[in-house]
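Morning!

This is the sequence you dropped in the shared folder:
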Amino acid sequence: GLAAAKASAGQPLSLTVDLSELPAFPSYKLAIVGSMGKQVWETEARPESGKINVPMRKGLGAGQYYVRLYAPNSELLREFSLAVN
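The structure's back. Tokens below.
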């Protein structure tokens, strides 16, 4: 099953992804897609101390999202669901 995260709609949030058991790269691509598969946000993230921590100052509207972590070559490494209420 997918790891699930929760957030409050319209509030700044911080996306933290643990990179243990994943291949190490100097940077990763982090994307958020809506429940219909449409990408709503994307950023490049650099790891720090085995984690990625990305602030989203604007937050997201209420809904169901999926956070996807990609390698620099666009290979999907990890995906988890994000419920925003």
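Headline: The chain has a mean pLDDT of 93.

More detail when I'm at my desk.
O.
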